[in-house]
Amino acid sequence: MTPEYDNTNSGVLFTNDQGGNPKRPSLRGSLNVEGKEYNISGWKKESKKDGKPFLSLKIESKQGSYSAPKAVPKQEPLMDNLDDLSF
Hints:
Blueprint: E1 11-15, E2 27-33, E3 36-46, E4 53-61
Antiparallel strand pairs: 1-2, 2-3, 3-4
């Protein structure tokens, strides 16, 4: 029996069919970082400065996109408002 492949801290990129849309990534694949799985996309680009080719990368969690928690409005402590109460 062949032992299971350990892909921890490694990844792979494959050529992606852009379907005539230059905004789609040139490359797509997956990445494992410390046991967490990510999707990775790459765009082949050319430097405007010197014309050298490079890859622009985007990495997203496979567990869904992350959005920062919304800020909770600041509330005044209840004890500060006791003077305003009439009995």
